[in-house]
Design a protein that fits this description.
Strand 10 and strand 11 form a beta hairpin. The protein has 9 helices and 15 strands. Among the domains are: 104 residues, Helix Hairpins; 36 residues, no CATH class; 110 residues, Sandwich (HSP40/DNAj peptide-binding domain). It is elongated and about 100 Å long. The strands form 6 sheets. Strands 10-11-15-14 form a 4-stranded mixed sheet. Helix 2 packs antiparallel against helix 3 and helix 3 crosses helix 5. The longest helix is centred in the N-terminal third of the chain and has 17 residues. The chain is an alpha+beta fold and 372 residues long.
């Protein structure tokens, strides 16, 4: 299994979309999870490989790097972990809620509030904005606990015990020898219900208002990173506001491919440039770089430029690298004159131009002997 591609590990095709990959991961993770395979080292190893495959294939940027360059392209600090682990965490909460403690809430609320005080919004930014940082305005809807019903959702704040869960806020489902608990769907875990709905909030327990806030996005922000804007979340009964969390989605660039703080650039060169070696100019995040091609440069060969990548968003002062990967190109067609010139060039190298002959000479003799 270790020698399989990430797609083979999750048993999906290279054209699988995000939902198909997530579904396949859940299936494999359930199959090999340590809780279901105690003291099974093989299952534990397969479980880790599934996690590794999902981390990469569930992230558009890492998947793009992997599809082009394989696992080698994810080396050297290129693998991002923040967004991958956040996603894995949500998957496990869904899969194993009810087993060994269940999932934890990511948002806070006071015991008497019917909605989380912390809230989240998503923001899409382009590649340049992510690399160099910027300021952007965020528009969002914030909840405020209804003053008329005191946040109960009930007319005159009069509530009764929930008839479905008996005021417990939880209902229990038995499957075989196991019993699962889940939040009561009737009262949403409150244990109480409104006799009549509040006329102002229509029984929701809150009102909503449109708000705007300008956030300063630091250089190096990446897909799945979050910024906290203190005190701009929802407002509970006590008048305390939660925080606003902005999660970023970064658009891909047409030339640069990001992997963590490193940046990859595919550089097409003609086969004669690779043979002879040449100095060329290539684009970089900060303008231009000089690339000195070695004589005999190979296809997929990489040239690394230290410190020419993306600034670390955590403010450590570090910068990633820029990796230029060579793609050899060949002429689509030859004129008669060009063909003759190439044939003369090949002939000038003598036996060196036909390495297969010396390599397979002994093999030909052995094969002939098989039929005597």
């Amino acid at each position: 299994m270790e020698n399989l591609s990430y797609y083979e590990i999750l048993e999906v095709t290279k054209s699988a979309n995000g939902d198909e990959i997530k579904k396949a991961y859940r299936k494999m993770a359930k199959l090999y999870h340590p809780d279901r395979n105690p003291n099974d080292a093989t299952a534990e190893h397969k479980f880790k490989l599934c996690n590794e495959a999902y981390q990469v294939l569930s992230d558009d940027q890492q998947r793009s790097v992997y599809d082009r360059y394989g696992k080698e392209g994810l080396q050297g600090g290129g693998r991002r972990q923040s967004s991958g682990f956040d996603d894995l965490g949500s998957v496990f909460e869904e899969m194993f809620n009810g087993f060994g403690g269940g999932g934890r809430s990511r948002q806070s609320r006071a015991p008497s509030d019917k909605f989380p005080l912390d809230m989240g919004v998503e923001m899409r930014i382009n590649f340049k904005e992510a690399v160099f940082g910027c300021e952007k305005e965020v528009t969002f809807s914030a909840k405020t606990s209804c003053k008329t019903c005191k946040g109960t959702g009930a007319k005159d704040a009069k509530v009764t015990s929930c008839s479905q869960c008996g005021g417990k806020g939880q209902v229990y489902i038995r499957q075989g020898f196991m019993t699962f608990s889940q939040t009561c769907p009737a009262c949403q875990g409150e244990g109480t219900m409104a006799s009549d709905k509040c006329p102002d909030c229509k029984g929701k327990s809150y009102t909503e208002t449109k708000e705007k806030v300008t956030v300063k996005i630091p250089a190096g922000i990446d897909n799945g990173n979050r910024l906290r804007v203190s005190g701009r979340g929802n407002m509970g009964k006590s008048g305390v506001r939660g925080d606003l969390y902005v999660t970023f989605e970064v658009e891909e660039d047409s030339h640069f491919i990001r992997s963590g703080n490193d940046v990859y650039l595919e550089v097409p060169i003609f086969f004669t440039q690779a043979v002879l070696g040449e100095t060329i100019t290539i684009p970089s995040l900060n303008g231009e770089l000089t690339l000195e091609l070695e004589r005999g440069t190979k296809d997929k060969q990489q040239y690394r430029f230290r410190g020419e990548g993306i600034t670390d968003v955590h403010g450590r002062g570090n910068k990633g690298d820029m990796i230029a990967q060579i793609t050899l190109t060949y002429p689509n067609r030859l004129t008669k004159e060009q063909e003759e010139l190439l044939q003369k060039l090949q002939a000038s190298f003598g036996i060196e131009s036909k390495p297969h002959e010396s390599l397979f000479e002994s093999a030909f003799e052995r094969v002939k002997g098989w039929f005597k």
